[in-house]
Amino acid sequence: MYITEALKAIDEAGCDILTRRRVREKEEVPGALWHIYHARDSDKIRDLLNKVAIERGDKLEPHHDPIHDQAWYLDSPLRERLYKEYGVEGYAIIQCLGDAVFIPAGAPHQVRNLHNCVKVAEDFVSPENVSYCFHLTQEFRHLSDTHTNHEDKLQIKNIIYHAMKDSMACLMSVTREAQVKEERDSSPPPTTTTTVPATDKKVSETDS
């Protein structure tokens, strides 16, 4: 029964034809359904969620964030409205047993379990996405002190500091080695002094 419901959710999620074939023809068990959006669309998603909350009569609390609060799930009607009103469309991805899903820094995402799952997640900072990570840190600072995401878990400033410190140490080490080599190559060769051993000479007097 749950397989039928999972396949129905996959069909309604906007997954591509290859994904739909994979879970049917190869009989792989779908574990989770992901929707991942581009980081540049974050503010548009926020605007939609705030608009929907107001339409429902909810009060927007200060220092809250509809994305970081993790209180919303974009179902099919909301995803359709997001596309029609803002032109935003995400990527629907099915994660099967053994699959790893990479989520770029700052990318809004949501996940729905289609089967019993155990999640293993690892956060990391890549050089290409430092700017997005720093932007996320700034967003976390505006949340309330009691918010679960208020803490700077990425520690992006410490990462940047230690990365620069290690880089400078490596550059200084290479520079010192180059200077030592240059001094060694440019210094004149040492002068070699040849010492001629003295010959013992017997001085004799000739009798006259």
TrEMBL record:
Compositional bias ranges of the Basic and acidic residues kind: 199-208
InterPro entries, alphabetized: JmjC_dom, LSDs-like
Main location: nucleus
Record SUPFAM superfamilies: Clavaminate synthase-like
Keywords: Metal-binding, Nucleus
Coiled-coil regions listed: none
Record has Metal-binding as a keyword: yes
Molecular function as annotated in GO: chromatin DNA binding; histone H3K9 demethylase activity; metal ion binding; transcription coregulator activity
Keyword check for Hydrolase: no
Localization: Nucleus
Gene Ontology BP, a term: regulation of transcription by RNA polymerase II
Ranges for region Disordered: 177-208
Assigned GO CC terms: chromatin; histone deacetylase complex
Start and end residues of each JmjC domain: 1-141
PANTHER family: JMJC DOMAIN-CONTAINING HISTONE DEMETHYLASE 2, ISOFORM A, JMJC DOMAIN-CONTAINING HISTONE DEMETHYLATION PROTEIN
The name this protein goes by in its record: Lysine-specific demethylase 3B
Gene for this chain: KDM3B
